[in-house]
Amino acid sequence: ALTAGIVGLPNVGKSTLFNAITKAGAEAANYPFATIEPNVGMVEVPDERLTKITELIKPKKTVPTTFEFTDIAGIVKGASKGEGLGNKFLANIREVDAIVHVVRAFDDENVMRENNREDSFVDPLADIETINLELILADLESVNKRYARVEKVARTVKDKDAIAEFNVLSKIKPVLEEGKSARTVEFNEDEQKIVKQLFLLTTKPVLYVANVGEDEVSAPDDIEYVKQIREFAATENAEVVVISARAEEEIAELDDEDKAEFLEALGLEESGVDKLTKAAYHLLGLATYFTAGEKEVRAWTFKRGMKAPQLAGIIHSDFEKGFIRAVTMSYDDLMKYGSEKAVKEAGRLREEGKEYVGQDGDIMEFRFNV
Ligand code: GDP
């Protein structure tokens, strides 16, 4: 499964957020085969469509799909030239598919900025820069190594692939040298394939979490720190999610009724963990299809662009091997016509084959050989 890694400087509220995620966690009984590492928090992906389908079909059981956050350990500062824990920090980031970068945007005299640092004023931009710089320096090192090697081949052998890679490296190198992330460079489709093979850190999709005070979370537009974070994120085309990690820790412990009340008191429509989960899911290019029977209505995560047999394979590899076709209707059609039978009568029930590209909100039933 794809995962988003939570990073941030010390004392910005990462552990508080990760605790909230773990507490809000997916109901284990629904996912008996899931093995979760201690640094991974698995949450259910909120989806109103799943609720609506459940109301319509009234199955015995409803199972949401899940998403995993990874807590990134290690020391940030000096990581790019450091050993041990610093290296571990970078290695852990290399393994995740997206970065959730938590930034402190709350004032609290009792919470030092970083470990015992004297100047405890809050400075989101400096904090973002500190982390990004380590990632940029690590990338610059990989790019420089590669550059030296590929340049030679490109010049002497005139190898086509080497020239293409050299051109990509030549685009990235000066940007990193300027202290900017490689994600700010625009690549065409061919270049993107090459970029992927470089396994850089600063090309990973990112979203910024502004961790604000409990009493401010309902009106984030008024917070100067949040404005600063938004302005910076815009330069990377990145999204900003405003949460209060402290409030989230409390919310995660409540049952549904109390949770709704508490959210209302805070002036929020949904919890920050829910908001963050949706944003991270979207950031990774993930989408949801459903299976809907009387026994069980269930949501499944797929990567946009996947074809029908792959979608079937998410449920079971046998479904993919023996795939024949997928009987498919859209969520909107089910809501419009009210039942599968009515959808069929309206001529909107489709038989999709091997080349069908799954769409978000598809409701599918797979036919396969065993
Ligand atoms: P980490 O080092 O990034 O994991 O940070 P922690 O989650 O341990 O938080 C550091 C300190 O900041 C703890 O004392 C938290 O209780 C406090 N903290 C976290 N979020 C908030 C918040 O929204 N408001 C305030 N006032 N304190 C917070």
UniProtKB/TrEMBL annotation:
UniProt xrefs under SUPFAM superfamilies: P-loop containing nucleoside triphosphate hydrolases, TGS-like
Binding site for ATP: N11, V12, G13, K14, S15, T16
Entry keyword set: ATP-binding, Magnesium, Metal-binding, Nucleotide-binding
Pfam families recorded: MMR_HSR1, YchF-GTPase_C
Domain OBG-type G: 2-263
Cofactor list: Mg(2+)
InterPro entries with a match to the protein in the record: ATPase_YchF/OLA1, Beta-grasp_dom_sf, G_OBG, GTP-bd, P-loop_NTPase, TGS, TGS-like, TGS-like_dom_sf
Top-level taxon: Bacteria
Stretch forming the signal peptide: none
Domain TGS positions: 285-368
Family designation: Belongs to the TRAFAC class OBG-HflX-like GTPase superfamily. OBG GTPase family. YchF/OLA1 subfamily.
Known role: ATPase that binds to both the 70S ribosome and the 50S ribosomal subunit in a nucleotide-independent manner.
HAMAP family for this protein: YchF_OLA1_ATPase
The protein's name in its UniProt record: Ribosome-binding ATPase YchF
Organism: Lactococcus muris
